Amino acid sequence: MQNRIRERIYLFSLLVILMMAANVARLFYVQLIDSKRYTREAEGRNYTAPLDRRRGVIYDRNMRELAISHKVNSLYAVPREIDDLKKTIESLSNVFGKGEAYYLKRLTANRNFVWLERKIDEDRVARINDLKLKGLRFKSEYKRVYPGKNLASNLIGFVGMDNDGLEGLELYFDKILASSQGRETYYSDPSGARIPLMKDSSVLSPKGGNHVILTLDEVIQHIVEEEIEKVRVEYDAKQAFGIVNDPTTGEILAMANVPNYDLNDFSSAKTWVKKNRCITDVYEPGSTFKIISSVASLEDGKVNPGDYFDCPGYVMIGGHRLRCHLNHGHQTFAMGIAESCNVAIIRAVQKVGKNKLFETISRFGIGEKTGLSLPGESRGIVHPVRKWAEIDLGAIAIGQAISVTPIQLMTAVSAVVNDGVYIKPRVVREIHNADGEVVVSFKPEAGRRVCSLATSKTIRGMLSKVVSIGTGKGAAFINFEVGGKTGTAQKAGPGGKYDPDKVIASFVGFIPIERPKFGILVVVDEPKGEKTFGGIVAAKAFKAIGERILEYLGYYENDGKTANEGQLTVPDFRGKSAVEILEILEEKNYNLDILGSGDVVGYQYPLPGSKISDTTPVAIYFTDPEALEEEQESGLQRMPFVLGKTLKQVLGVLKDREISVRLNGSGVAYRQKPVPGEIILANTECQVEFKDE
C-alpha cells in the first residue's frame, strides 16, 4: 500500500518537474530565440496619434483678425463597440443629412477607428450626445474660421480639412502658419481602448504656429470690395478688380476681386472665383498703358509735352489702320494724354522706336512677376522685340498686343509717380511667433530708378490734366488734386479679332497726385450699357473708393463736421439713479439717449471724461443693481452706442473694446446689432450699417 502511494507521489513530482521544464524551455525560446517576432507583435499594439495643433493667426495691419482657429468636435466610431448598427446608421443619416449607405460602408469597414464627420457644429454635437449611441466618440480639433467671410477671400485663401494651406496666403505661408506637429504614443488593448504609455517620450506637445501680419487694411479692403461690386452690378459686368497701395512703400492696402466667395464655405465656390485674379489673370490694359509709353517717349528728350501732333482720327502703320476714338486735330502731346488720343502717343513712340519702348517696358517689370508673396502670379505677355510686326509698335503703345496683370500695372504706374523709383509690392509686414514676438519684419526695399525725376514730375502733371480737363473728369475730387489715366480696351474674340461690344474699363489714379499717399486701380471686365468707358465706369468706383478712404483716415475731419467737438466733458452716469441723473441735467443739459429698464445706470457711452459737442448724444443704459453687480464680477460688457458716428469713429470705439465688426455702406451709422447696451459675449460680431447724411 505504501509502495503504491510512493509511486503516485513520484509520478506527480515527475509531472510537475516536466511541466516546469517545458515552461522554462518555452520561456527560453520566447526570450532568446523568437524574441523579435513577439517584440514586433507587442509594438504593433503601440500607436502614435497626432495631437491637435493650432495654426497661426492672419492679421491685417491694425491687428484685426482675418483668419483664426477655434476648437471644435469631430465624430468617429469604434465599430466593434456598436451594439445597434441599424439604429446608429439611421440616426447619423438623420442628423447629418447623408444617405444611410454612406454610413453603412464606413461602419462595416474592417477598422478599429473610422471618421464619420469632421469639425461639426455644437448643435449636431448635442444631438449626437442626446442619442447616447454606443461606439461613437468625439475628438477635438482646430477648425479654421474666417470672421470676414468673403472679405479678401481671394487674397487670404483657405485650408483643407487637416489645416493644410490650399490657396492664397494660407498656401504661400503654410509652413510658417502651421504649428509643429505634436504626437501621443499609446497602447491599444483588444477592445480598442487607449492606454497611455508610462514614459516621458510618449507625448510630444505641439507648438503653436507663427502669426502673419499683413499690409492690408481691413476697412479699406471692405470699402474697395463694396464699391467695385456696386459698379459690377450696375453695369452687369463679368467681374471687377480693385487694388489700393502706398506708392512710396509698395504696401498693398487692399486687393479685391468680385465676385468673391465665403472662405468658411469655399467648397461651394466655382474654381475661377477662388483665384486671385489681380495676380493670375492677364488683360490688355488699353490706354492706362499710355503712362508707360509716355515714359519711353519723354525720357530721352525726343518728345516734349508741348510738341504738337495731328490726329485725323486714325493712323496707318504697315498697311493697318489704328483708330482713335475721336478726331482730335492739332494738339500737344500733353493734351493728347489728357484726351487719351491714340494718334498722339503712337506718333510720339515712333520717334523713339521699338527698342526704346521694349527696353522701357522691361525696366518697369512688365513681362516678369512682381515677386509678391502670393502663389500663382502670372508674368504677363510681352513678346520679344525681334518678333514684333510693324504694327506692334503702335498697338503696344496704346495698350494692345501686350497683356499685364492688375498688380503689374499698379506697380509699374506707381513707380512713375513715385519720383521714378520702382518699389517691389508687399502684402506682408511682419511675422510673429506664437508668443507675439516679432521674428521677421519686412521693410520697404530701397527700390530702383526706372525713370528720371523730371519725367516723373512731367507725367504727374499730365495725369492731373486727365482728371481736371480730360477723359477722367468723373474721378475729380473737391478738396484734393487727383491724377490718373482712363482705359477702355476692346477684348479679342476667339479668332483674335477685337469685339467692340466687349471691353475692359479701367482707371488708375493717385491721391494727391503731387505727393501720392494712395494709388487706386479699378478694372471692370465686360461692363454692359451705352457708355462703358473707363472714364465713366471705373472712374466712378475710383472716386467713391478714394473719398471713403480719405474719410476713414481722417483727411476730412477738419472740414467743419467736427468743429464744435470738445466743448463738453461727459460726466460719470454709471451707478446713478434717475433722480441723480436729473440733478446732473439741472447743471448742464446733455443730449441723453435713455435705453433699457431698471433703477441704476449700468453702462454709458461716450465714457466719462470724453470731450463732446453739445449736440452729441450720450447713451445711458438702465439696469437692476443686482444685475450690474453680477455683470461687473463676470467681466461681461455691453454693446456701445455707435449710431450717428463715422466709419472711423465706429472702428475706434469697437477696437478699444476688442469687438469684431461687420460694416455695410458708407456715411454715418444708422443701424447697429446688437442694440446699444445689450450684454455681449466674447467673439460677438457687431453689424453696423451706414448711410449718407
Could you explain how this protein is built, in words?
α3 runs antiparallel to α5, α9 runs antiparallel to α19 and α14 (342-352) packs across α16 (390-397). The protein has 4 domains: 50-214, Penicillin-binding protein 2a (Domain 2); 219-553, DD-peptidase/beta-lactamase superfamily (Beta-lactamase, 3-Layer(aba) Sandwich); 566-634, Trypsin Inhibitor V, Chain A (2-Layer Sandwich), CATH 3.30.10; 635-692, Trypsin Inhibitor V, Chain A. The strands form 10 sheets. Strands 2, 3, 4, 5, 9, 17 and 18 form a 7-stranded mixed sheet that branches. The chain has 22 helices and 32 strands. With 693 residues, the protein is an alpha+beta fold.
Salient structural properties:
single chain, 693 residues, alpha+beta, Penicillin-binding protein 2a (Domain 2), Beta-lactamase, Trypsin Inhibitor V, Chain A, 4 domains, seven-stranded mixed beta sheet, five-stranded antiparallel beta sheet, 22 helices, 25% strand, globular
